[in-house]
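Chapter summary example.
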Amino acid sequence: MNTKQILADLCTERDRIDRAISALEGLDGEGTPRMTATSVLPAQTRGRRRRLTPAGRKRLSELAKARWAARRKGATKLQSNKTGAHKPMSAATKKRLSVLAKKRWAQRKKAATTA
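The structure predicted for these 115 residues follows.
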């Protein structure tokens, strides 16, 4: 824990104790507490960081997954309607490219050994 967090926790605890003391001091004869400024609005509630519960985190996760699924679904439709999409390469074309690549590699290897 860092010192800022410890200090914030101690201030919160101090405010809680101050409210309890003022409530006990403010009891009149009928047993009703007197309202003070510190008992109405605690000072630390304004600056506290909100945290998600596990249920809330799960709900947000499910919503995000649904949004991404819808986005992916829409993206596949756009890709299938695209004009100029590449056709699959035929076996003959793959073979021809392989032969050309092997020739290039052989030339590079020969140039490297002579240099």
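To summarize the output: The chain has four helices and no strands.
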